[in-house]
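Quarterly update from the structural biology core.
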Amino acid sequence: MSQISSNEANEGLYSPTVLKMVYTPVVIWFSHTLAWKLPNPVVHRNHREHVGRTHLTVGPGNGYFLAKLPKNTPLRTLHLLDLNRACLDVTAQRVGDRFDVHTIEQDALQRWPVEEAGLDSVDCHMMLHTVRGKNLLDKEALIAEAARALKPGGRFFGATVLAKGEGVRVNGIARRLLDVYNSKQNTFCNLGDSSEDLRAILDKHFSDVQFQVHGCTGVWVATK
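Predicted structure, tokenized:
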């Protein structure tokens, strides 16, 4: 793995007010659909099909997709991992009446405080592109931790915005947002992130990988 850089919380961007009032319409409805071309039904489907009884979400945002899980979901114990306290609190408040929620406030590149081979599933949606690093090789520790924490047969699924690589299509809106977001500290750090590197890292740590590119978003389901 390459040398990684440190990550910091962004309390201004991820405030309780922004997460409750702005995040869903701007990030999930507008950016996913028009800029990154990530179909939200795909994210909902992957949550429905791959969440297990004991699950960890890296970067929960405001808990939108977790809150939309059906009543018959197998999920019982939910670990939330994020550097931003507000993301943990808002999501825990949103789904705490349904699941046994445990919050972990830390950098996702550091070792997670969960047992080895103790989780049924892990997801990381639209967060990896915010992690510091020249490219995805600098962020490999997150994917390695997901593999370490999963039981044999466990699933790691997610999505991230990519800037280049085979199949990646960056439209005008996405290009403008990438330029703006990568110029601000602690927003995006993904101009070196490619579809080839993402697929290679997933293949390195998991026995089976399903990988697709939607617009400029890499979407995966990986089985340990």
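The chain is about 35% helix and 20% strand.
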